[in-house]
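Subject: Sanity check before I submit

Could someone independently write out the structure tokens for this chain? I want to compare against mine line by line before I put it in a report. The sequence has 183 residues.
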Amino acid sequence: MLLLASLNFNLILKKLSIVTGGTQGLALIISKILNLETSIIILIINVLMLILSFKFLDKNTTYGTIFSTFMYPFLIRLTRNISLPFLNSFPVFILILLTAFLCGVTGGVIYKLGFSNGGISLIPLFVKKYFKVNIDITYFLMNTLIIILGIFTFGLLKSFYSIVVIFINSLIIRLILKRKNKL
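---
Independent answer below. Compare away.
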């Protein structure tokens, strides 16, 4: 799933500058401003959040993020030069729908398996533990702030696309998480 997520990031999200919140959205913004490699930014954010998780969260939560902390930025770096020229022939809105679907499926399966993406998605867990604010509220506010930063970095149209991706992504994740496991 992380490989599919990294391909989706490099082939569509990064190429179209779609900021969908989270660590990858923040990395796109920082990369644009500071001209740094996104995989390095994601790795730095993930490692910092992992260290904070070891210090402030329970060990089960922390252990569940170790693999993705290092593997996701590695796979983003590994797949950064892959090109699928046929994607250029698709209208932008079709690519937006495709990336939303892929984000939803990869995120939903990762969460369904009991894992976490790590990175700044751990911030709502910190806020819940120490300030008793619901995870969904913090998650929403945090990602809204990132999308607002995306407006100033990439423009209003790209941010509209971001909202479409997040909406569809959320619906797909919800469907996957509600689905009963069938053996």
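---
OP: Matches mine. For the report I'm noting this point. Helices lie at 2-16, 22-34, 38-56, 59-79, 92-112, 123-131, 135-154, 156-178.
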